[in-house]
Each structure stands twice: as structure tokens, then as C-alpha cells.
Amino acid sequence: MIMQSMNIHFWAFHGLFMGNYGINFLLSETLQEHPSTKVTVIDLFNNMESIKPLWKQVHGVGKVIQRIMKKSPHGVHLLCFSQGGLICRGVLSVLPNHNVHAFIALASPLAGQYGVSQVMKSYYPSSATDSVYFLCYNKFMQKRISLCNFWNDPHQQVKYLKHNNFLPLLNGRIPHSKMNTV
């Protein structure tokens, strides 16, 4: 499907602790194989800004994607990496209408994160995994740190569903008004 529609613009969005430069490695091979492909990286929430709460990032990226779609009547493709996949998926879930033909989420924790990823090893030890829910499952941290918005501790599902204000909503585990119902 993608190969037949290379004239459609690709938009890419990075992951946690990355900037627009960080996703370029993902795009370089595509551009080598298909040099006429138009690819643009969304330049928002770079580096440390990427730890802002996911709903805030969804709204910011959503505004950009809406402008992009208005300028692209034939549609667009979204290529979103890591945490960016959650953000792009969140954008698509709240937009009433969109013309995204293909949504590609690479290495994205769509079902949540539990355990220490390579990106996070320098911030906390593997042994801390069992106690991250203490940090994340409260209103204060849900409004401040993106990782807390997708932390999904399989041993603390009651607290996850009660306190996580992003991922359970996005995955339809909790009814809410933010999701587009069209």
C-alpha cells in the first residue's frame, strides 16, 4: 500500500528524549530507496520537552497535523517512533476527521511500558520497576511526566485503571469523552 502511494507526504514524529534529528536515522533508508518521497519531521516536544504529559503533546501535535492535512487533500502517512506512536495514535483518536492513509508506529509501547527500556536505564535501575507505580499512579505525576501516562504495571491494574489518565482511555479500557466517537 505504501509503495503505491509514495506521492503522499510522510510525516514523522520522534520518541522519548529524542528530537527531530533523532528520527532521521529511521528515514534515511526510505529516502535512499525512494529519493522523491516527501518526508517532514514534526518539530515539537524535542528532547526534555518530550517528558511533558501525553495529552498535552497530543493536543500540540494534533494542531500541527490538522494544518498538515488541510494542505494535503490527497492524504498523508504518519510514521511515529516509540512514545511518538502513542502521541500520533492519540491524535488520530481525537480528530473527528482525518486523511491519514497509513499510520506506522515503530517500537511504540501501545499497550504500555513495564520494565526498564534502554532509554530509561540511565534514569533508574532495573530493580526500581516494581515500585514505579508508586511514583506514577497519582494525579500529580500524571499531569507532569509522559512515562507515567503509559506505565502499565501488570501487578497493579486496579491502580493503573484508577489513576492513569491516558493509556487506559486510549485503549478503550475506561469510557471517556476525549475519544472521537464518529
**Apparent shape:** globular
Instruction: Write the CATH fold name of the largest domain.
Output: Rossmann fold
CATH class of the largest domain: Alpha Beta
Name the poorly predicted regions: 1-5
Please work out how many helical segments DSSP would assign. 8
Largest sheet: 4 strands, parallel
Determine the strand fraction and express it as a percent band: 5-15%
- Walk across the major sheet and give the strand order: 2-1-3-4
Instruction: Give the total of beta strands.
Output: 4
Report Rg. 17 Å
State the order of secondary-structure elements, H for helix, E for strand: EHEHEHEHHHHH
Q: By helix and strand content, what is the structural category?
A: alpha/beta
Please, how many domains? 2
> Mean of the pLDDT scores?
86
| CATH-level-4 superfamily name of the largest domain | Alpha/Beta hydrolase fold, catalytic domain
Q: How much helix is in the residues?
A: 25-40%
Distance between the termini: 25 Å
List its traits:
182 residues, 8 helices, Rossmann fold, 36% helix, 4 strands, alpha/beta
In short:
With 182 residues, this protein is an alpha/beta fold. It is built from 8 helices and 4 strands. Helix 2 crosses helix 3.
Describe the fold and architecture.
By secondary structure, the chain is α/β, with parallel strands linked by helices. It has 2 domains: 3-106, Rossmann fold, CATH 3.40.50; 118-170, no CATH class. The protein contains 8 helices and 4 strands. It has helices at residues 24-33, 54-71, 83-94, 132-136, 139-142, 146-150, 157-163, 167-170, and strands at 9-13, 39-41, 76-81, 100-106. It has a 4-stranded parallel sheet, with helices on both faces. α2 (54-71) packs across α3 (83-94). The longest helix has 18 residues, at 54-71. It catalyses: S-hexadecanoyl-N-acetylcysteamine + H2O = N-acetylcysteamine + hexadecanoate + H(+). Its EC number is 3.1.2.2. InterPro entries: AB_hydrolase_fold.
